[in-house]
């Protein structure tokens, strides 16, 4: 692995940022630029994609699902040239789950090349509904970073994990369906296993311009959609999810969404009474949403800004927790701080409150709260720093 790149003690976002930065700085980034925020295209992606044809699992596959990202264009072409059924997810899953790419009969090499581009995917595709009997034999995904053990980091929007979970739900992939990713050599890094979440997709093969790595990854792949990790926002953006959710609900599964049971619902502490849960539901509020909303103590305007802050330490945060998830738990508990210092890599955060009452309430609400499977530690911070 490339020494310019991150390793131990980094969060997923640190790793993404460093990979994007390194690809740009080293001149390896390729169109579309900048690669930041994307599954990055890189010089040599064609070469890496060519190795796909040499994999046994590709030779045996009849239906191949390849993501729509630019660096995977060569993989889409390889599938079309080998006359396999090519499935490509619809971008951001807006209209369905896949499109099947159907080249015109007797298509020339030139037309197959067109079919493999993002425009071609639009021009030559037919949507596959949930009942289309897709049986995917091989899955090809893009990555921002991947480790030789098969841990994968995507661009952070969760679409590849979601697509895979949806395929499991509709019976399109099995436990042993192989997953391949195609990256530049510098994107193969050490990734700490604690950064992995149970909904993260792992990979079985990594193709780079210079090598083929078989990961022999034993970690189980996601077993289907984890509804408690799906937000209503995501459900609103992905219509097909609604259909799958209705089906699974009818089949008797628990399909409660992430924001339907507040962060508090998974704790059985008496401190959180029903009244409190009710109050956490979006009622009209005095403070506009997103503004620090510290209980309802009147703030003395003369002291505003000159008051020393009371700082609360929150520890034992799970590595996979995002700052947004902590913020939404603070909103639900109605202990929104005036300031928040996030140190996810150290599994901790510091919350600043304008008055001690609010700080003490935050400590009692957060202590032992279960987030991402960890019971949090909360106490007043050792140093009571002044603001600024």
Automatic annotation (TrEMBL):
Which Gene3D superfamilies does this one have? 3.30.70.330, NagB/RpiA/CoA transferase-like
Annotated region described as Disordered, given as residue ranges: 283-307
Q: Does the keyword GTP-binding belong to this entry?
A: no
GO molecular function term, any single one: RNA binding
User: Superkingdom, according to UniProt?
Assistant: Eukaryota
Sequence ranges assigned to domain RRM in this UniProt record: 310-383
- UniProt cross-references to InterPro entries, sorted A to Z: FTHF_cligase, FTHF_cligase-like_sf, MTHFSD_RRM, NagB/RpiA_transferase-like, Nucleotide-bd_a/b_plait_sf, RBD_domain_sf, RRM_dom
Mind telling me which PROSITE patterns this protein's record contains? RRM (PS50102)
An annotated GO cellular component of this protein is: cytoplasm
- Entry keywords, A to Z: RNA-binding
Which PANTHER family does the UniProt entry name for this protein?
5-FORMYLTETRAHYDROFOLATE CYCLO-LIGASE-RELATED, METHENYLTETRAHYDROFOLATE SYNTHASE DOMAIN-CONTAINING PROTEIN
What's the protein called, per UniProt? Methenyltetrahydrofolate synthase domain-containing protein
| Natural source organism | Chloropsis cyanopogon
Q: State the encoding gene.
A: Mthfsd
